[in-house]
Amino acid sequence: MADKAFLTGINDYKNIGDLRGCINDTASIRKLLLDQFGFKDANIRIRTDDEVTKAELNKGWKWLLKNAKPDDRLVFHFSGHGSYTADTDDEEPDFQDELLCLYGMDWHDPKTYLLDDELRVWTEQIPEGVQVTFVLDCCHSGTGTRMVEPKLSRAVRTDFRSAAPLAIEDVAIERALKSGATRSTRGLDDHVRKQVRPVHQEDIGLATVLARFARPPANFQIAIDNAKHKRSFRSVLKQAATRSAADQEMNHVLWSGCRDNQTSADAHIAGDYHGAFTYYFCNAVRELGRGARASDVITSLRTKLSEQHFQQLPQLEPEGYSGIVFGSAEQNTDVSLEEPPSDVGDDGGGGGGGINVSAADWQQMLAILQQIAANLSGEKGAAQQRAGSRGIVFVHGICAHDAGYSDPWWESLRPHLSSGVRDALAANRKEVLWSRHVTDMDRAAASAADPVEIQQLEWQLRAVLSERMTQEASQQIVERAAGETRAADIPPGTVRAAGESRPVPRAVLGIPGVDCVDDFVKYLSIDSVRQAVLGECTSVLRPLLQQGQSIELVSHSWGTVVAFEALRELDREGLSGRVHNWFTLGAALAISFVADRLRPRDGRKPTLVDRWINLDARGDGVGGSLQATNLQVDEEYLRLAPVGCRSFLGLVSPACAHSSYFQASNTAVNRDILARQIERA
């Protein structure tokens, strides 16, 4: 067996912003491979800074593959900046190619970067049976970052935007507070503030957290945006139709530092600079041991990063891969029957009649049994709670809502409940009214906001929503072409929005949420507004839970975000009641851009909730799978028929689909899902 590794890291870039922990990352991976996995030092090659060129990477890849045989382990690691450029072959649905920024990064010179298409060509060269692992600690998005004034010499060679380092302010603040910094009336103390929110190069210090992302020059971004605006349904259909064919079984394993729309952090950790992903990846593998399973490592890694206030969510592909780290998936399926501990597996006769399993396996079995016991205990307690008083609470989405907005929601559900349950819920029906806190924002809150930041966030959110609508339309076209789309359940007569006696919300008239997106931008970007909204929600839920009641919680659209954060706040209060079912309908939680800004961002189901059930209608570009955004939902009902919505050439209005859950004629939702779950013990 010839195990080899090619490790690269760039701190000192020629044209774009420098980083600090990338070379240390290569040392960390090298030490891990030597100490934990038995790699030989002679079979590990490291290239740093100006050595990391395209020619050198291609040479290193050929060296890795040379004489490779089945079961050999090969590792390619890159720590540095990531970015993107305009897609030239019309293969990418987002019209941009992701890339690794090499030492001389210049968007006008393909020799200075490595495209994702080129990495794909590499993978096609992997001999069958050879185990290849890619570890990439970089990112392809500058979400949530702030530009630092670049070095003039580099700004001249590229442009100001591309040469500027990017600081991740939110993460730096949380880490600074944890390390002992104190708040003042203006935020952080002066000696820390400059470092967590650097303006000039000299401000960058120990507390600064940098993003491993380089913004493309403005003209490249404009080209990408123009391509998106000129997108035709024909091109979208072509991309959607070929996407499934491209998702073939992977012949390698890919570890990456974050989601596509997140940033990988470069920070001061444990006395030196590191990539947060690489540092905690190595730690997680060491703690779990040489036979660590990838599925266990990714779980531990995400937990460690969250505990240290890093918001990035590392990714593992193929999704669900559970093989041994740097090893083969087949190794993972072989159950090792070792000698048991002296007090385990003996039938008492000393004749070996017991089942021999390893101590580690017994520990795992014990953990499973304990989890089962905890679940049984929780279900029993929940059943006892439901035997007492019950209630139902509704949480609306964005745009202004008035008292009574939930009346049509309740009227659609009520006929499908048994009389006892119906009467109990009707007598204790509540609704959360939070929209006034964003529509009537006071002057103090407005003055505390950064108008530039709010404008940028609003633009990004509008672009995300527009893109989701286009993707949803393309999926409907593909379904129709494949004969998979069923005719929508359209009642006779004029189609009306739920609650027609009231003014139809602005969101129903166009792309859901676009006309009111500024409302939710305030929620995401202004802490005082966020706390006021959450306070409104918790003030309704808390008294019911304090009384030990069993609650059915129904949240819609952007209200699902409010409900999630409110429930996580209430988790800390030790309340005796339970949320029997939490329904999320057309959930904005399905939008990665939104889910990545949740507080906290660990994806964990609120402990107060017994069952978390997510519903999504076909054509609803806001809703979608919550598992896709790494949220611990229990059940999902996806691509339900948008009842009450007409279609044109197979396309359903997003606004209609988004409000279809509450149509009285939508028995699939109100009777078969909501009522059935509410009636469950």
TrEMBL record:
Domain Peptidase C14 caspase, which positions?
A: 4-317
**Where does the record place Acidic residues bias?**
336-346
Residues in a coiled coil are: none
Q: Which InterPro entries match?
A: AB_hydrolase_fold (IPR029058), Metacaspase (IPR050452), Pept_C14_caspase (IPR011600)
Q: Which GO terms describe its biological process?
A: proteolysis
The GO terms this record gives for MF are: cysteine-type endopeptidase activity
- Give the residue ranges for region: Disordered: 333-354
Under the heading Pfam families, the entry gives: Peptidase_C14
GO cellular component terms, semicolon-separated:
cytoplasm
Q: Please identify the protein, giving its name as recorded.
A: Caspase domain protein
Organism annotation: Roseimaritima ulvae
